[in-house]
């Protein structure tokens, strides 16, 4: 009886270990910890396959749908010559959203307090986002106001919620690299050059025009310090 009990325990342990391995999102390449450096050690964008589950993707889209409004630029205001899309914000304290944010933070041991609320973006045919940085290095009132709520953005996790569309890849302009993860996959990159606290030129990226279908993504952004804004 004791031998049978031990055998069953070993089988259970084996099943748990296998499930843990299989449920870990596959990674195309691994990035080092920390910020990006403006030299040959630049940490290139990293693609994670199956970073979120189908349930999580559907939940994000269902919560975002009634909240979508014309996308604004980082300085505020709608400019359809710069970007053409719809944006919604989901509270990071929502249990499902919180799990996704904590998953991002665990990669580089960031505090989830430094995470912004989840941004969800929807592109229709012809939708795009011209080359831009995810943080700001300008010295102007808009930039200074942006930095008050936690400092610079130091990490971006861009999650593809669907793949039923043509076009719409993420282009890293100064790396001459187009990235388009499969559905539920994501791209991790680092917008800031830690040497001068400015936007890293190699992190300049664009959302290429959508040829057909509808593209939906979500952005998890990590700041230098605790993020203080409410989710409006």
From TrEMBL:
InterPro entries membership: Oxoglu/Fe-dep_dioxygenase_dom, P4HA-like, Pro_4_hyd_alph, Pro_4_hyd_alph_FE2OG_OXY
Entry-linked PROSITE patterns: FE2OG_OXY
A GO cellular component entry from the record: endoplasmic reticulum
Cytoplasm is among the record's keywords: no
Domain named Fe2OG dioxygenase: residues: 114-224
Pfam families associated with the record: 2OG-FeII_Oxy_3
Gene Ontology terms, MF aspect: iron ion binding; L-ascorbic acid binding; procollagen-proline 4-dioxygenase activity
Keywords: Dioxygenase, Iron, Metal-binding, Oxidoreductase
SMART domains reported for this sequence: P4Hc (SM00702)
Gene3D superfamilies: q2cbj1_9rhob like domain (2.60.120.620)
Cofactor(s), names only, from the UniProt record: L-ascorbate
PANTHER family, A to Z: PROLYL 4-HYDROXYLASE ALPHA SUBUNIT, TRANSMEMBRANE PROLYL 4-HYDROXYLASE
Full protein name: Fe2OG dioxygenase domain-containing protein
